[in-house]
Amino acid sequence: MRPDSALLALRPEIITETPTADATTTVGAFLHTTLRPVLKLQNDLLLAVVHDFVADYRIPLATAEATQRQRLLTELLGRNVKLRYTIVGLITGHFTAAEYAFYQQNRGELNRRILDLATQRVLSQM
Questions:
Q1: Residue ranges per structural domain of the chain
Q2: Given Cys at both, which of 4, 43, 68, 102 links 96, Cβ 3.0 to 4.6 Å?
Q3: Integer Cα distance of 19 and 12 in angstroms
Q4: What is the DSSP-derived secondary structure letter of residue 12?
């Protein structure tokens, strides 16, 4: 059994202007109280995974211009199903039991948000 308190203690605190509600009440609250902190926690690993996929698929990011690089990364993150599942797994593996139950009920919307946030993070740090 995984202790939820240990998972929560790992997460960095992110200060938001919106009041934080219980993470399992709305998708918006879940975004701010769970997804953003977990993505921040997993940032280095996320970048490493994307870097590995870029190397495996021999995407020429080093020689591409900035706009071309952004387009190539956006396509990779948007179309590569294996990479998408890997990113979702990196994030959902840090959910508590209650958060995972909420995720199961809202899987489609939350997967979309996870991938959007991950794409923004990767593109902003390229």
A1: 22-124
A2: 4
A3: 17
A4: P
